[in-house]
Every structure is written in structure tokens, then in C-alpha cells.
């Protein structure tokens, strides 16, 4: 029997789930989303778990998901991911003492954090054996609210992973960084409404993560403030909808592109920070996902300001789609199903 896993993505504007079959040629077999009212999830953090549970229940009805087990993700300002170097100790001891050893590297009490790490490698420093780790610290209280939202919808969270890692699994090129002449890492950038997740990887191994507290909402706010209009009108204009009595299109575009420009500069500085601090690092390609990437002209702006290939992350180039959707509806859904699909793909922590 074909087996499948369901990934559940709680975003600031919607809850989404994707069921992905496992096996040789995985496919997205079910997917759905339910919009969230403002304030229920903010900055990628659950504020009102009961209302999120309600939306998830509706999501299960709408999507017809059979399983109650879900793989979930976190990606917000309450998570830090850092490369750290520690004196080498045996793996077992490292596990046991990690909290004490990494306290100086994280901006929260180790006791209040869920900690995890990947060993990146070993090296020697002044004759001492050292180990390099990719350390993940997520605030416990924030994680608990995510879990609570799922349990409140009668689901069983069986895995929790970082959104950036899910991005790599969903759209990352496993061969990136492999070939000598075209050597370089791949960056994947998920532009949400409130949060932008940036991850750099080399053939599937994460090298760098940066989570920015900005996204599509900032463009909407720039429009509403700049043009003196309501947020919901600004949102519709941003998406290119016709609104009666609205300011001229050129004006809307000018304000949107100006704000998008400084946002792109923020993204570029994060990528430059990575290449400056990691020896010999070079980013060869950038993939872009998330609802915020649908802004007209946004990818062109990235292409102008970031001197490497920038492409939309093609979820359905990696996974087959068994969704009953028209080609247009499928390409509309593609950028916002990446996180949920990546969470459903095996490889994450359990
Ligand atoms: N056609 C469009 N043109 C411009 N922006 C769009 C379009 N469609 C969606 N967006 C923007 O995409 C953003 C939502 O993206 P997404 O659904 O990926 O975020 P989220 O996962 O709900 O939130 P987050 O990841 O920040 O927690 C919103 O800011 C929305 O305005
Ligand atoms: Mg999101």
C-alpha cells in the first residue's frame, strides 16, 4: 500500500496542509488551505490556538485528509539557527550537555528552549579537537502553542521541523554545489505575509538560515499608509485587482516597488552576510517561494539586484501532482504549498 504523510503549515494568513505519498516518485495527493482572520497568527506565531484549531478542523473537512498524524513546522523570530564551534566531546555527552554548552550562543535561557543540532564537521584549533554544529533553538512557549493548535483540532503532531529545512526538501536541488565548474550553494527564500525564511544549502545540507520579520504585509502597509487607503483595499490593489475610485495603477506600482526594493535589499544583505562569513562560500542560484513572491515585478527586482539566477521554486518539478486542479489553479497554489509539502517529506526530525 502506498504510504503518505501530511504536512501542516500554520501561516500568518492561512493554515495549509499537503499530503505527500512516499516512495520512488512522490506525489502531492491532497492539499487544501483555509484563510485565517488577522491577529490569530502573527509574525508566524500562534496567538489564538483555539481559533487556529477551528481553522484546522475546517481544513481537514475541506481537504479530506485521512490521517490524524501531522508533521508541523516553525519559522519565526522565536527560532535561532546558528553555526557554532565547540570543543569536541563524544556524541552522547554532547546530547546531554548541549544546553549548558550553547547558552552563550542563544538569546534565550536554554531551559526555555527546544534545542537541536546537526553536526557539520570537525576541525582543529590550537591543537584542540573541535566540532562544528548547526544549532537550532526554538522558544518552548512558542512551540507549545503550535502543538496545542493541532491537538485542539484532534490531530496528533508527530514531527516538528524548521520551515527552512522543509523548503530544502520541497524544492532544493539535491545536486546544488556538487559540480565543480558550477560550484556554489543554492538559496531558497520563502516570502510569506509576515515572515521571510531564507535558507542556504549545499546538496541538501543546510549552511545558513535567516528568518526576517518582513514579507508581503509590508508592501500592503506601505500602500495603505502611502496612499491613505484601507488595508483591505491596499491588499486588493497590490494583487492587481480593479477597485473603483482607487488611486491610479502607476501610483500603486510606484509605492509597491519602492517598498519591495528595500525588502529585496534586506534579503540581499542576508545573502551577503552568509558569503562574507563562510570561507569560500558562493551562492550560485536563488529560488523563491511563498505568497509574497507573487507580487508583480518582485522576481524581476530580485534579478536586478542579486547577480545570480533567480527562479520560482518549482514544487511540481520535484513532486508529481495528483491534485484535481486546472493548470492555472495549480500554478496559483504552487508557491504556497511548498512549506506544507516539505514538512510532509521524510527527513525531518520526529
Ligand atoms: N497575487 C499576489 N500579488 C501580490 N502579493 C500576493 C499575491 N497573492 C498573495 N500575496 C501576498 O502573499 C502574502 C501571503 O503569503 P503566504 O500565504 O506565503 O504567507 P503565510 O504563510 O500565510 O504567512 P507567513 O509565512 O508570513 O507566516 C500576503 O502578504 C499576500 O498579500
Ligand atoms: Mg508561510
Please name the defining characteristics of this protein.
350 residues; Dna Ligase, domain 1; alpha/beta; 16 strands; six-stranded mixed sheet; Nucleotidyltransferase, domain 5; 11 helices; binds adenosine-5'-triphosphate; binds magnesium ion; five-stranded mixed sheet
Describe this structure in words.
- Among the domains are: 79-139, Dna Ligase, domain 1 (2-Layer Sandwich), CATH 3.30.1490; 174-312, Nucleotidyltransferase, domain 5 (2-Layer Sandwich), CATH 3.30.420.40.
- It is 35% helix and 31% strand.
- It contains eleven helices and 16 strands.
- It has helices at 49-63, 91-102, 140-151, 163-171, 216-227, 231-238, 249-277, 298-305, 315-318, 327-333, 338-344; strands at 4-10, 14-21, 27-35, 41-42, 45-46, 69-74, 79-87, 113-125, 128-139, 156-162, 185-191, 196-202, 205-212, 283-289, 309-312, 320-321.
- It has a six-stranded mixed sheet with strand order 10-6-1-2-3-16. Strands 13-12-11-14-15 form a five-stranded mixed sheet, with helices on both faces. Strands 7-9-8 form a three-stranded antiparallel sheet.
- The chain is globular, with a radius of gyration of 20 Å.
- The mean pLDDT is 94.
- The structure holds adenosine-5'-triphosphate (ATP) and magnesium ion (MG).
- Residues 11, 192, 290, 339 line the site of magnesium ion.
Amino acid at each position: 500500500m502506498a504510504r503518505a504523510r501530511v504536512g501542516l503549515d500554520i501561516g500568518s494568513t492561512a493554515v495549509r496542509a499537503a499530503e505527500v505519498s512516499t516512495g520512488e516518485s512522490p506525489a502531492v495527493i491532497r492539499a487544501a488551505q483555509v484563510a485565517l482572520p488577522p491577529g490569530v497568527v502573527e509574525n508566524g506565531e500562534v496567538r489564538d490556538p483555539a481559533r487556529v484549531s477551528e481553522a484546522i478542523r475546517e481544513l481537514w473537512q475541506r481537504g479530506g485528509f485521512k490521517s490524524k498524524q501531522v508533521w508541523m513546522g516553525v519559522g519565526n523570530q522565536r527560532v535561532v539557527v546558528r553555526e557554532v564551534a565547540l570543543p569536541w566531546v563524544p556524541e552522547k555527552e554532547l546530547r546531554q550537555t548541549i544546553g549548558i554548552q550553547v547558552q552563550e550562543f542563544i538569546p534565550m535561557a536554554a531551559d526555555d528552549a527546544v534545542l537541536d543540532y546537526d553536526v557539520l564537521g570537525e576541525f582543529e584549533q590550537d591543537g584542540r579537537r573541535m566540532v562544528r554544529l548547526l544549532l537550532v533553538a526554538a522558544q518552548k512557549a512558542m512551540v507549545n502553542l503550535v502543538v496545542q493548535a493541532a491537538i485542539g483540532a484532534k490531530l496528533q503532531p508527530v514531527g516538528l521541523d524548521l520551515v527552512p529545512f522543509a523548503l530544502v526538501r520541497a524544492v532544493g536541488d539535491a545536486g546544488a554545489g556538487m559540480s565543480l565548474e558550477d560550484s556554489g550553494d543554492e538559496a531558497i527564500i520563502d516570502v510569506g505575509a509576515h515572515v521571510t525564511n531564507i535558507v542556504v544549502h549545499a546538496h541538501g545540507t543546510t549552511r545558513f538560515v535567516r528568518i526576517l520579520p518582513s514579507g508581503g504585509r509590508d508592501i500592503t502597509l506601505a500602500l495603505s499608509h502611502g496612499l491613505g487607503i484601507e488595508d483591505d483595499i491596499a491588499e486588493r490593489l497590490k494583487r492587481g485587482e480593479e477597485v473603483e475610485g482607487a488611486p491610479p495603477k502607476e501610483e500603486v506600482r510606484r509605492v509597491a516597488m519602492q517598498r519591495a526594493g528595500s525588502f529585496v535589499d534586506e534579503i540581499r544583505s542576508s545573502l551577503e552576510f552568509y558569503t562574507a562569513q563562510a570561507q569560500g562560500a558562493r551562492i550560485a542560484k536563488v529560488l523563491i517561494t511563498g505568497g509574497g513572491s507573487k507580487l508583480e515585478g518582485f522576481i524581476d527586482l530580485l534579478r536586478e539586484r542579486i547577480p545570480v539566477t533567480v527562479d520560482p521554486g518549482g514544487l511540481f518539478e520535484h513532486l508529481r501532482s495528483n491534485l484535481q486542479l486546472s493548470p492555472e489553479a495549480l500554478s496559483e497554489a504552487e508557491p504556497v504549498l511548498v512549506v506544507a509539502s516539505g514538512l510532509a517529506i521524510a527527513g525531518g526530525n520526529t
